[in-house]
Amino acid sequence: MKKLLIPTDFSPAAHNAGRYALHLAQELNHGLILCHSWLSPMHATGAAQLAWRIVDDGTIKREVADQLKAEAEKLAEKRHELGQIFPELFSPPLTCISEAGELPEVLEKIMEGQPVAMVVMGLSGAGNLERFFIGSHTKDVVNKATYPVLLVPQDFIFRPIRRIAFATSLDKGDIPVLHSLAGLAKVFQAEIDICHVSDEKFEEGEDKFRADVFMSELCARVSCADIHYHHIKSMDVDHGLDWIYEHSQTDLVAMVHQHYGVLHRLFAGSHTQQLAKHIDLPLLVFPPGYGATL
């Protein structure tokens, strides 16, 4: 059975991500892994090292285990509540793992022994955006991930996924990613909107031909009837993303995280305020060329 991996720092945002992952797992028939990473005092630096100098690993492990158990109990209670209302729903098994180390490395270690389909993480509100993205592990996870990462806004309540917007520059490497995304769409009977966001330099002749070639190859390789192409011509890609969020009536936005382009700029910190406009909906971030089944 595949698993959804949920890193938690015991914050409201992480708790909400857990609830979203629970709903998702019920639809996908996946299990859940709730995990927490912590730094051993011997690996901490600066102020953290001073604060933890008198705390040993055993004490931290016990405290983390207690917190993780409490968080798991909340999620299990929600699972039971949903099972009472909808007895036909799949009841995802839930396990907990805590490891010492940096979060990206801990996630990779867990995946070595577990069939993880994706990581589901919480996003704090826009007011804490700069601190959250620059000061937390989220940026590192997204930048280093070899797996899909689903970022869930703190206040977003799960709803069935009926429409998915996939933002693309028509890179052929996006086609295997769309094959993976189509599997998710099939479970929810969702439409996929291929949103080609371009700037004012878009030329009708050569660029339209490139779009036709991309869609032709996509339809030949991806079996999903409800795939639609939209060209969004904007002054720049960031404003094009605004259009997707404001006009596409979507339930999920998906993108490939190239180590250049818009997501790189957003997670690098230069566009954090711009990203504040883009966290009203869950954002599914794929590594380049990813094609495994979700």
TrEMBL record:
This is Universal stress protein. Residues 1-153, 161-287 form the UspA domain. Belongs to the universal stress protein A family. InterPro entries: Universal_stress_UspA (IPR006015), UspA (IPR006016). Coiled coil: none annotated. It comes from Mucilaginibacter mali. It comes from the Bacteria. CDD domains: USP-like. SUPFAM superfamilies: Adenine nucleotide alpha hydrolases-like.
